[in-house]
Structures are given as C-alpha cells and as structure tokens.
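Holo prediction — manganese (II) ion.
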Amino acid sequence: MTHRIAVIGGDGIGPEVTAEAVKVVRATDVKLDTVDFDLGGARYLRDGTILPDDVLDELRTFDAILLGAVGTPDVPPGVIERGLLLKMRFELDLYVNQRPFEGVGPGQTAPHRFVVIRENTEGPYVGEGGVLRRGTPAEVATQGSVNTRHGVERCVRYAFELAASRPAHHLTLVHKTNVLTFAGDLWQRAFDDVAAEFPDVATAYNHVDAACIYFVQDPHRYDVVVTDNLFGDILTDLGGAVSGGIGLASSANLNPARTGPSMFEPVHGSAPDIVGTGRANPTAAVLSAALMLARCLRRVVVVDAGRPRNAAAAQLHNFLTRDGTAPTAFLAAARAEVAGYGVTILPGTVHAADRTDTGFTVVVESGLVLHGRRLRGPRRREHGGDRGRARGPAAAPADLTDQGGVSGPPVARA
Ligand code: IPM
Ligand code: MN
C-alpha cells in the first residue's frame, strides 16, 4: 500500500529537514507517494499566494501532511503563520497538538518522558479582537481567548484516553484558573467531568507558571499534560529545552476523528540564519515523520528513537543538538547502542541498515537511530469521533503513546 503524503517544506530550513525525514521514511519498507507543495513566505513574496481554498481542498485528499517550517523575516509576523499554519490547523480541525518529550533535563540524572496535549483550534489563537485608532495615542487593541465547551472537552477527552493507555495513567491539567477565571473555570469543569469517566487515571492540576518550574526542576511528575493553545505553545518550547533541545522536538497536529489528514511538523522554526549550511538538525522532522508513520499511516511502530539510555549519553545527545553535528563520541555511542541489532553505521545521510521479519533499523547521519518493530495482533479501535464514550483500556486510542512510539493496529507487510 502506498501512502499519499503532502510535503510542505515551507521556509528556511523547512525544506532541508523534511527532505531528510522523507529519506528516512523511504529507507523503511513504507511506500510513500509524496507531492511537494510550494507554500510559505517565499511563495507569498513571489505571487501573493498563502493557502488558497482549492489548495486546502487538495490537501484534504492526502493521507497526511508533513510540514517543515514557516516564517521568513521578509514577511510581517502573522501573515504566513495565520494564513498557512493556523488555517490548516483550524480548517482541517487538527484539534490536538501532541508533543512528546523525552530526555534528561539539565541537572537531572534520570530521563523523563511525558506528552503535552495542546488544544490546537481555540484560545487566543482564534484571532478574536481588533484594533481601534491604530498608531494614535488613543490606540486600543483587544485579543480575546475563545474557549468552547465542545472544543475543550474533546481535547481533554483525548488526553484522558491517552493517559489511560499509558502505564502511568496520569493526567495534569495546566491552566491559570486563579486569574483567567472564565476560561479556567470552563476548562476545570470540563476536566473534572471527563475525569469521572476515567476513574483509573490519576489527575493533577498546576498553574502554568508553576508548571514552568516543574518542567525544569521536577519533570518526572508528568505523564500526560493537557492545556490550552497558548499555554501549550509556550510550555512545549520549554519542554523541548529540557529534553535535549528544540532540535529534537516533534509534533503531531491531529484530527482524531480522522475526517481528514493530520499534519506532522517539528516544533522548531525556520532558522533562516543557518539555511543551506548543512547545520540544520533534521532530528525533529525525522521524529515527526515517525509520529506520522505511527499515528496516521499505521504501518510501523517506532519503539526507540535512539534516545540515550543514561545521563552520559544524554550529554552527547544534547551536544549533538546544539551545533547540529555528530561528534565522533556520539557516533561511537550510537554504534554501541545498535550493536545488538547487528547494524553498522555507514557514511552518508540515511541508511536502512537492517530489515528483518520483526523490524528495521534506520541510521541517519546525525547519529539518530530509529528502531522499528512490526506489530501483529488484533486491530485496535480507532480514535474516532463516532467512537462514542467507550471507556477503559480496551478503548485506548492513543496511537502515540510516547516519543515516536505508538500502539496501533497490525502492520501490513509491504
Ligand atoms: C508552534 C509555533 C506556531 C504556534 C507559530 C509558528 C504560529 O510556534 O507550532 O509552536 O504558535 O503555534
Ligand atoms: Mn511554538
């Protein structure tokens, strides 16, 4: 089976990192039919096109969308972000932004592993508000936050279902209920109501400012975190920073009802300063593509994205992400790590070093190693909108249980 993937490289390093991600996927036995879309700041500057509705409709026909990065200094802030990225999130109803974090935080000795579920279609991102008397001393600007019971509840329910599918069975709501009393109250009540349907999931609440401390000082307290759009945007940059750097942070913009394609993108931006230097680290894009395989194409389960298993290895890994190169020591560690798989790291960009009946290993030049395992077994229920309120682990939908990992249906052999 061939999967149709829309690739929007976008701006800056976006096209470079998505190209590497596509190479990695092609190095597995997953067959992709990719179509490149020329969208982003450069296109906008050329002919004014951002994301016309007919292109959006074309995107709806794909199995998934792989996005690099958008934004260029030559275009005023907001034009491409709202017109392309947010338009896709809203119009394709990608209401969950799932961002997994795994790593050893600064000053920590043990690895943490948690997932942030960011509401992706509401909050301050909807663009409510306006400006009066712009540029005068009497200027007024308002920017509201829109929170619907429907939008909050479906996101919270997804987070509970995800938490129920993970060993720790724990979900933390992050908000600012002590100040944002209207929105916070709606979030808290939706959270509490859905919690009653998941008696096996332990819950916690943190104000967002406190969560910023805990992300750094005590990340191990988290398993699944659910939060609003803007808090989630900010917290996930922090999540990246404490998990090996933003160069590793992947994300899945999901339409859990599967009424259209989901979109997968690295959390990082377009980094115009390093375009074309070969220093862009493709890891986040590769991991986002791994999420795509797992969640959307239901083909491969990446069980280990080559994460360091101890603090010393983590230091090497962090170093790797800072300058985008692979130090010899890291490669040595990576070699040792894959030795058990009978894999060799070769020069070059991407290598499918091993394909067996039970799995594959892909090694990319940066030293990132993806180990995949084919799954067999009964097909799980989809995380579908018509799934109703089925409860319990059997209904666990969460195709993305962790960084690059999933539970999912059986994987057809190519
Ligand atoms: C992200 C980005 C986007 C966001 C920008 C580019 C609009 O920061 O995906 O986190 O704010 O959501
Ligand atoms: Mn962001």
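READOUT: The first helix runs from residue 14 to 27.
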